[in-house]
Amino acid sequence: MKGSYVIFSLILLVLGFLISYSYQLTKEKSRDGSITTEQWNREYEIRSQLIAKEETNQELQAELNKKQDEVKNIEESLKDEKQVYYNLVEDVEKFRMYVGDLAVEGKGVQVTLEDASYVPEGENVNNYIVHESHIFNVINELYISGADAISINGQRLSSHSYIYCNGPVVTVDGNQYPAPFVIAAIGDPNVLLPALNINGGIVDQLAYDNIVVTLEKKDQIIMEPLLQDQSSS
Fold this sequence. Notes:
There is one protein chain. The protein is of the alpha+beta class. It has helices at residues 2-31, 37-99, 132-144, 189-197, 202-208, 228-231, and strands spanning 104-114, 149-152, 155-156, 163-166, 169-172, 175-178, 181-186, 212-223. The chain folds into two domains: 40-99; 104-231, Protein of unknown function DUF881 (Alpha-Beta Plaits), CATH 3.30.70. The protein has six helices and eight strands, in the order ααβαββββββααβα. A five-stranded antiparallel beta sheet has the order 3-2-7-1-8. 17% of the residues are buried. It comes from Metabacillus halosaccharovorans. Keywords: Coiled coil. Pfam families: DUF881. Belongs to the UPF0749 family.
């Protein structure tokens, strides 16, 4: 019996050693980088969550890009509408200025037409004085060249204005003016003056008709709005 106890004790000793060695080996593996099933499952779960978050972020980024494009399109549309409204307001202001509803001021030119200072003996005096045709020619050239507003001897013209002469006197919208006739025009003087002075143009024609012409560049010309009854007459 004693021999059996000794053998049994040896078996238990060896078994304990193997269990201890196996535990120590498992512990060593955990320490050198090997992972347990529980750790692997945890890591897999975290990786899956990260992948899901990344997919969600990509979807949100795509949605954000879509919204940004929509906002950009809306901004472009509003910008276009704003430009349209601005152009409409600008056109209305121009029309009001042309019909004389608004006071205007700006750079421009001044054209003075005078009767000839000398009439040869025996000549017809009417061939040496300013007529409405001369004034019309100057006004038309100024408008064609881009003048925004025109006045004659301070009388601002409108779309309903009328001009005619009676001897040495010119009537503008019912008001009579003797020579000299001062025609003021608001606009770019660097365009208006060359248009008047072009070779064979208005100035040359007036000189041929014995009219004395004086051209001046003006830094500021002010024209008051027309009265309602004047602009509608």
